[in-house]
């Protein structure tokens, strides 16, 4: 239930920074998608039922600091939430059931309205404060009790200002934002960029003696951290035959921020000059100033421990009952003794190695980790101390006794293992769909992910990669990118390459629910329909194709003429667009060929005919490289958090998440007419206003107006071009019986591991596979 991104097509996981309302990357390996609801032990019958899955290699499954979807899957197996969404008896929707909570939350807003220090409006009547009573039989796998103190410790660690945990913003900004949590998380020191507006060359009024540098914080000059840039573009740090980066590294030491010295200043000026900016003041765009903040005591944060088994969460914005249930499920507990024992300070940051091995892991969910071998596998067994085995509320659920995950990503290898009976699930790509598409064991599930072509539009970065006679900077011309969008026949693409998907025209697909209580889909709202129709120039969404070869040709010619006139392109130049892919998989090769053919067709008869080449570049780190301007083009995907379409704007309106280098959502502005009055904000400010500001509790029509306006405006940059809405297909092994034979919804899927059963236990399955010579037919 958590998240917003995954690169399924390229078999590469990469997660955004921050968990924007339940931001969980789509598992590139579909094996783990069965956890829609979320040992040596044996089932009630005394038999073993081990589920065999696969995934990428997890780095950590620490709830406060994980970053990958497959890591989140391990957390979901070893943690129980306060409330869970489970398939209902009619198999046509969900029920919300208490898990670690004893009963439904009680809205106690009236008790805190106008009460200091929480900031709840004095006239607030609902949605700001919620009291939760806990069950009294919850334990960790070692038998130690779980109570309100466990929740307090966990939230305090998520927000620990000394740790700067990856998942902290789930509780200070998005999802479940506690009152005063941001101030607590910031601590007594925060940092601001010296440059306040690069376009206007505006800087804070401070002396060099007040400035600091950081290798790990995002600087204005690169819109990325210096360490990231150095890893991808070491030439920027060259001075003749010398490497200047060690001077920066030496000055920084183990600190996140270090004083600017005259020598460091000269280095930064040289780096700027290497990138074409020879202004003496350019060094300021790398620098920061220190800001002192008054301390925010934990006692002022929106967590009140009422007694040992009751606590109240006080928020900095109003949530509906549904959204509180939805958001509160993001609280995954950490065990204090292990978390503390594995803390270590590096420089001025404290980190913990909690949940990086079996020995350093704890469980309060149905399964616990018993074995972990890096780069090979992780194995989980039933957690004998889980309350659910004895509470009477989970009868005939969780038949699975063990969960085995192999760390394999090669689809050919996975296919062979699946046919041998050594895996219980197999994701189907276009090639395997041709072979297994008619199998009775196939399962199809719509996903919330929109796949798009992401472009680098920064002329300076593109020019830095050019060589004699080879142009890239034409990508910075909007008409050129618009031409690419118009030459793509999206229907043909999904029919021939991404079989099972749907053509994608918006940044937000048809899975997003604008109004959970009524089930109203965002794409079905009049505001969303109007935005797409206006953008594509049609009278109805059914008429949208996004394909117009003639108009594409006109756009390509306009871009060529403008680039020639500006001196950015020579008539003899060839244009090379490097398309970065994780591997040379069949689908990647076919996508490159498809795009090349589309551009070739649309440029016929123009000055660009025969001059544009799409060059595939295998790059395992292309997501990181995109953020430093090293990638011309890649296909990227965002999705997750399907019950919060407004929160997904984070993916497009916050530089920390943005894949499209050269677009600055904190600077670019948009005017939106709301109820007859024009308002202008930056894209980031619109996102913040909608999700954590003045429009958070606005009427649904107003919120949809803002969202649709931002979506339409973003599409107009043509730096993020939607191609397809993702649907997934997979095969279950012949012994797996899903809780439901049809996909219910994005909250419960087919019922998840809770309701999944087996027709054969492990011993019977091994015998069956052996009888079939380990070559099963699907």
Explain this structure:
With 778 residues, the chain is of the alpha+beta class. It has three domains: 1-94 and 336-446 and 731-778, Periplasmic binding protein-like II (D-Maltodextrin-Binding Protein, domain 2, 3-Layer(aba) Sandwich), CATH 3.40.190.10; 190-292, no CATH class; 447-724, Dipeptide-binding Protein, Domain 3 (Dipeptide-binding Protein, domain 3, Roll), CATH 3.10.105.10. Helices cover 27% and strands 21% of the residues. It has 23 helices and 36 strands. The strands form twelve sheets. Strands 23, 24, 25, 26, 29, 30, 31 and 34 form an eight-stranded mixed beta sheet that branches. Helix 13 (478-487) packs antiparallel against helix 16 and helix 15 (526-536) packs parallel to helix 21 (700-715). It is globular and about 75 Å long.
Condensed summary:
By secondary structure, the protein is α+β, with helices and mostly antiparallel strands. It has 23 helices and 36 strands.
């Amino acid at each position: 239930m958590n998240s917003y991104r995954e690169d399924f097509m390229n078999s590469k996981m990469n997660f955004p920074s921050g968990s924007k309302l339940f931001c969980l990357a789509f598992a590139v390996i579909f094996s783990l998608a069965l956890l829609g609801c979320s040992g040596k032990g044996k089932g009630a019958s005394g038999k073993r039922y081990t589920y065999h899955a696969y995934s990428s290699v997890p780095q950590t499954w620490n709830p406060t600091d994980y970053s990958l979807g497959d890591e989140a899957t391990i957390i979901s197996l070893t943690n129980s939430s306060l409330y869970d969404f489970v398939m209902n008896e009619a198999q046509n929707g969900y029920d919300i059931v208490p898990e670690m909570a004893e009963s439904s939350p009680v809205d106690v807003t009236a008790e805190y309205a106008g009460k200091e220090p929480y900031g709840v409006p004095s006239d607030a009547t609902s949605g700001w404060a919620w009291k939760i009573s806990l069950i009294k039989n919850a334990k960790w796998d070692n038998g130690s009790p779980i109570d309100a103190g466990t929740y307090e410790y966990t939230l305090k660690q998520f927000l620990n200002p000394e740790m700067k945990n990856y998942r902290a913003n789930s509780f200070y900004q998005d999802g479940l934002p506690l009152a005063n949590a941001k101030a607590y998380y910031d601590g007594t020191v925060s940092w601001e960029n010296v440059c306040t507006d690069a376009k206007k060359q505006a800087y804070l009024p401070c002396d060099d003696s007040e400035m600091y540098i950081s290798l790990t914080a995002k600087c204005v000059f690169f819109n990325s951290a210096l360490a990231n840039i150095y890893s991808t573009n070491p030439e920027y740090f060259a001075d003749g035959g010398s490497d200047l980066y060690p001077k920066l590294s030496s000055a920084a030491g183990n600190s996140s921020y270090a004083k600017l010295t005259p020598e460091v200043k000269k280095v930064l000026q040289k780096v700027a000059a290497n990138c074409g900016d020879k202004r003496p003041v350019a060094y300021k765009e790398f620098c920061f100033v220190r800001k002192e903040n008054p301390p925010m005591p934990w006692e002022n944060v929106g967590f009140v421990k009422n007694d040992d088994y009751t606590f109240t969460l006080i928020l900095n914005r109003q949530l509906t009952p549904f959204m509180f249930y939805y958001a509160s499920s993001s609280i995954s507990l950490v065990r204090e003794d292990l978390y503390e024992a594995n803390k270590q300070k590096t420089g001025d940051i404290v980190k913990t190695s909690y949940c990086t091995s079996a020995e350093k892991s704890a469980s309060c969910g149905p399964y616990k980790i018993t074995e972990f071998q890096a780069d090979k596998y992780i194995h989980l067994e039933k957690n004998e101390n889980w309350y659910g085995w004895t509470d009477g509320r989970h009868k005939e659920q969780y038949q699975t006794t063990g969960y085995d995950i192999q760390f394999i990503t090669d689809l050919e290898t996975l296919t062979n293992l699946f046919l041998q009976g050594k895996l219980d699930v197999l994701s189907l790509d276009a090639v395997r769909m041709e072979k297994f598409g008619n199998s009775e064991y196939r399962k199809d599930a719509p996903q919330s992910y929109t796949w798009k072509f992401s472009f680098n539009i920064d002329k300076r970065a593109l020019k830095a990669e050019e060589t004699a006679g080879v142009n890239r900077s034409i990508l910075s011309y909007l008409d050129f990118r618009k031409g690419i969008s118009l030459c793509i026949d999206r229907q043909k693409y999904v029919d021939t390459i991404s079989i099972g998907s749907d053509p994608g025209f918006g940044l937000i697909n048809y899975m997003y629910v604008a109004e959970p209580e009524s089930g109203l889909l965002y794409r079905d709202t009049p505001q969303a329909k109007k935005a797409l129709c206006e953008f594509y120039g049609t009278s109805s969404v059914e008429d949208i194709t996004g394909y117009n070869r003639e108009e594409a040709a006109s756009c390509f010619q306009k871009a060529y003429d403008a680039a020639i006139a500006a001196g950015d392109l020579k008539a003899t130049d060839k244009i090379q667009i490097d398309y970065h892919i994780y591997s040379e998989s069949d689908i990647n090769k076919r996508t490159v060929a498809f795009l090349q053919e589309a551009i070739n067709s649309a440029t016929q008869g123009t000055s660009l005919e025969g001059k544009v080449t799409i060059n595939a570049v295998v790059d395992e780190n292309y997501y990181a490289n995109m953020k430093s301007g090293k990638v011309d083009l890649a296909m990227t995907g965002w999705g997750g958090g399907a019950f919060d379409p407004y929160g997904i704007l984070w993916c497009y309106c916050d530089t920390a998440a943005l894949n499209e280098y050269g677009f600055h959502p904190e600077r670019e502005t948009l005017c939106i007419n709301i109820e007859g009055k024009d308002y202008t904000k930056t894209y980031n400010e619109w996102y913040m206003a909608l999700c954590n500001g003045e429009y958070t509790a606005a009427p649904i029509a107003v919120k949809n107006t803002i969202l649709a306006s931002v979506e339409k405006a973003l599409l107009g940059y043509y730096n993020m071009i939607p191609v397809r809405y993702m649907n997934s297909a997979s095969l279950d092994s012949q012994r797996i019986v899903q809780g439901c034979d049809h996909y219910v919804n994005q909250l419960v899927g087919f019922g998840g591991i809770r309701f999944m059963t087996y027709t054969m236990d492990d011993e019977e399955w091994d015998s069956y596979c052996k009888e079939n010579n380990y070559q099963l037919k699907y």
